Amino acid sequence: MESKYRTLTHDEKRAAEAAFRGAPFDPQLSESARKIYIGISSAMAHKRDEAFQEFDLSKRAKKAPRPSTASQIRSRAKFSLW
What is the 3 state secondary structure string of the chain? Predict the structure, then answer.
């Protein structure tokens, strides 16, 4: 039984690595390497867009309440790195 997949060439592996790292495409690579680079780059850009859509950037983060009593301030100061 023949496999419909083949291993990547050296150029294609270099293009894939560059795409995953976000590095620019090397124009000396082959046409098939360029197609792989474009495919991976566009898929990763789409994933980044999806990741940011999950967060509602219009909502502000809530701040932790400040200690109100002197004992709470002292106990928090014990663990401060400053």
Answer: CCCCCCCCCHHHHHHHHHHHHCCCCCCCCCHHHHHHHHHHHHHHHHHHHHHHHCCCCCCCCCCCCCCCCHHHHHHHHHCCCC
